[in-house]
């Protein structure tokens, strides 16, 4: 049975408003209905998810797809493929994703760590408590909270809440958290939104939650928000009809003729 995500000590002080958590759950419910199942992560294996989680850092997904296609052509989308491949070749294949020297080294480090501590088995990694696996992932080069949680959720099917820039924008613009919230605070709010859901439904919900947040972020909640057409615009009524701190651009006044 899937366990409820533990509240880490760093998050204990990150108390969030129950009302705001309920609002975020309502936003998710609305988006899940709007988009339907999105079937994330777009990958054919758990290890391909992990490669994608590393490569997508600071990069558009379209660039990641080109790198993944290169790796596929070289049969390198497996642990064995990355293990055997010289790092010089690996960095050339992942070049479209940018930061290839750092990302190639990080991928090699992940495989070496998995080999040393889990006999090269993702199933063995998935069998340890989520918080332990998360701490170990965070100790690896090139792994921050977003990458660690994406690996836990989408590759290892653990109830880890993925927090990204898109979610930060949505929760701050809707006044659910104040400006510049810490990662832990956003994660606490998002986990609290699913407090009343059955533990064995959390992996499915967290999977869909991150997927719909990314869709909203890519299409509407951009650096300059496009609220007029956004499916979440209904919630702005809670905060006076426009997003907090980052209003849509004003219409340019017409020159007087
Ligand atoms: S674009 Fe506007 S309505 Fe949509 S999520 Fe962002 S702030 Fe909310």
Automatic annotation (TrEMBL):
Query: Is Membrane set as a keyword in this record?
Result: no
SUPFAM superfamilies reported for this sequence: DNA-glycosylase
Q: Which residues form a coiled coil?
A: none
**An MF annotation (GO) of this entry:** DNA binding
- Mind listing the UniProt keywords for this protein, alphabetically? 4Fe-4S, DNA damage, DNA repair, Glycosidase, Hydrolase, Iron, Iron-sulfur, Metal-binding
Pfam families tied to this protein: HHH, HhH-GPD
Task: Name a biological process GO annotation.
Answer: base-excision repair
Q: Does the keyword DNA damage apply?
A: yes
Residue span(s) of domain HhH-GPD: 55-219
Give the matching PANTHER family: A/G-SPECIFIC ADENINE GLYCOSYLASE/ENDONUCLEASE III, DNA REPAIR GLYCOSYLASE MJ1434-RELATED
Q: Which family does it belong to?
A: Belongs to the Nth/MutY family.
Q: What is this protein called?
A: Base excision DNA repair protein
Species for this entry = Silvibacterium dinghuense
